[in-house]
Amino acid sequence: MGLQFSVSSPDLDECLSPLLNSCHQLANCINTIGSYRCECKIGYQGNGQKCNDIDECVISPFFCHPLFDCRNTDGSYICACPEGFEGNGDDCYGMLFSLYG
């Protein structure tokens, strides 16, 4: 048994430039040996070459307290106080009483 040598080219990282891959701007490019793959970022869904926002408020109305308003944002969501109340979406205050999230 003698020594075995393998002559191969170094791997080209297609993720270094958007010109070298077809990943969507809302996807992460993952380099693999001889290729790459695209995965949509958190809060988005798709095949990596096309990524769309996930509307978390439609998927699960339980992200926010039932008395608060769930509002979809790009890649995420926020809980907002209902009309007539003020606060940060976790604690909402009105004129006569407060709502707690």
TrEMBL record:
GO MF annotations in UniProt: calcium ion binding; heparin binding
GO biological process: animal organ development; system development
Source superkingdom: Eukaryota
Pfam family, one: EGF_CA
Alphabetic keyword roster: Calcium, Disulfide bond, EGF-like domain, Glycoprotein, Membrane, Receptor, Repeat, Signal, Transmembrane, Transmembrane helix
EGF-like domain mapped to chain residues: 11-52, 53-93
Matching InterPro entries: EGF (IPR000742), EGF-like_Ca-bd_dom (IPR001881), EGF-type_Asp/Asn_hydroxyl_site (IPR000152), EGF_Ca-bd_CS (IPR018097), Growth_fac_rcpt_cys_sf (IPR009030), NOTCH1_EGF-like (IPR049883), PKC-binding_NELL (IPR051586)
Classification via SUPFAM superfamilies: Growth factor receptor domain
Example of a GO cellular component annotation carried by this entry: extracellular space
PANTHER family recorded: EGF-LIKE CALCIUM-BINDING DOMAIN-CONTAINING PROTEIN, NEL HOMOLOG
Listed name of the protein: Adhesion G protein-coupled receptor E2
Originating species: Holothuria leucospilota
